[in-house]
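Worked example 2:
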Amino acid sequence: MTEGAMLAPHTTPTLSPARVTTVLRILVLSTFVVLLNETIMVNAIPRLMREFEVTAAAAGWLSTAFMLTMAVVIPVTGWFLQRVTTRTAFGLAMALFLAGTALAAAAPAFPVLLAARVVQAGGTAVMMPLLMTTLMTLVPPQDRGRVMGNITLVISVAPALGPAASGVLLQLGSWRLLFLAVLPIAGAMAVLGRRKLVDIGEPQAGPIDWLSVPLAAVGFGALVYGLSGLGAENAAEALLPPPAVTLAGAVLVGLFVWRQLALQRSSTPLLDLRALTFRHFSVALALMCLSFMALMGAFILLPIYLQEVCGLSSLQTGLLLIPGGLTMGLLGPQVGKLYDRLGAPRLVVPGAAVTALCLALFAFTGEETSPWLVLALHVALSAGMAFVFTPVFTSGLSVLPPHLYPHGSAILGSLQQVAAAAGTALVISVMSGHAATAAADGADATGALATGIRWGFGIGAVIGAVAVLVALLVRTPPAPPQQAEAEPQDEDGTATSKAAHTPT
């Protein structure tokens, strides 16, 4: 098979509006379930430490391993989604998630629970790119903002509900309820999906470059692991020094990029980096990474601040943070409609500015700050992010030709994990360093921590200010890729598929 045939886009079946809506709803609801699980264990860490007699650092691996698995699997999804049917990809993702959830619910020992989280993450890593690729294939450009806004509602609300849901379930009984409650819902979505989903496009058979797979897995895994460990309290005592792991990961990712560029000239790359030749996509990618760094930094600092400085319980903290997640989610559809009317710049620039301002105001909080003020700032921060994420995802992916949708989604997902780890490491390192300095200067434990947290938010505000500058470069795609951008920039982007019907 020639390279041109390999890179030809999927042919999209003609679907009725009702059928398109059904397909997207199944994928969105399934994604909601797997994303809810990602944060549902936040409040269970202390109980797991007692039951399994493990340290806090060991228990933290339940989250770290999930993130690492996502970083390892997502780069491969661009290749994978082009070579299997939609129903096969969905079935594999849900089967992995269900197997991991069932194993976690019955886990007799901590290593088994950790392995179960890895299996769950494998399914989650496939679901997000599958959802984005299907959306970009089925929905015509003029309606993508509205549809992406509806998806943002679900994607934003799920992680926000996780900590609160876990708090309620832990009040009712064992930590195993966290998995037993999710299992039947995920099972129902899997059965419904297998019955109702249709295959979007035809799989494209082709070889896989086996050198690229370990380079991507070890490179992205080491980079995320190293960045995550840079800010940890016991980083100096780690068996693998985080700075060395980070450097090794960066080198391997560099080799992976070099390998993909070489394969683009002679064969089929595992991750097609030609998506980065589209300026709109590259700018959107940069803004997404900066915004995600700032957001993840804030999400890490806020629970520490509310519990350790303000004295709130874990359940109270989860409940206080829910309105922000709901705000981001509920604004998603409205922002999507505005995007279809006004374009990206008029939404992204104000949203990035509000985000940077809120992070700057968080830098002035202290021991006497009212939790209600924190709630208001968090809601405003979430609203600002809603005006950034929906237009950025929509405008960034819209400029790509259809055969690059899976690769564009994989690039976004991979760098999102790296940005999350980098943002977390940066703010934790700044917080720890300044808290230690304040303690050495005579501040009590709470006051020293509050000082460190303020500095952490300050760094987030600086990142937010840089994001505002990048937001000024965002433009609305002038035309569908098959008409304007795809042909002159990529000679392999031959005939493209016709847009499907608009979902209602």
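The first helix runs from residue 3 to 7. DSSP finds 18 helices and no strands in the chain.
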